[in-house]
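ok here's dTTP/UTP pyrophosphatase, seq below lol
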Amino acid sequence: MTRPKLILASASPRRLDLLARIGVVPDAVVPADIDESVRAGELPVRHAERLAAEKALAVAEAGALVLAADTVVAAGRRILPKAEDEATARKCLELLSGRRHRVHSAVTLIDAGGRARHRLSTSIVTFKRLTAAEINAYLASGEWHGKASGYAIQGRAEAFVRFLAGSHSGVVGLPLFETRALLVASGYPFG
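and the structure came out like this:
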């Protein structure tokens, strides 16, 4: 029996790299074009889960496996934005400085029969208290651009992490333990 086609519903090169770490190479990468706005009253976990499911459904293909994920950084009940400009990144870093936050990574896999399965990884991250010079240097690196809450734990910002409980890969954007479990449950062959 041949393995079904695997589609990654993501434009993130980080998710592609993370899948490669567990020996998974998608047959196609099809970014989902959905509205990622936060709905009124939507809490961080529900937001991540809804977006992962909507991304998977947006690119669903009969007989194929479709893998989608969404990562939300939350300070309390507040969902931090994806940093598209330096001012947003600065606000996020100043907010996270010296405090604990949660990173929720939701994963949805639609199997070859059309059944959707879901998993969630929640990690707790604590940043050291950041100096103005550290924030300025990080902003100058440009690494923050397009990242949820304005930082990339797999890069220079890892030096700011005083404590991490949970999934490092989940904070990067795709929790590998949960993702592999979904793939195994769908019959994806691991060698």
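fwiw The chain has one domain: 6-185. kinda neat tbh
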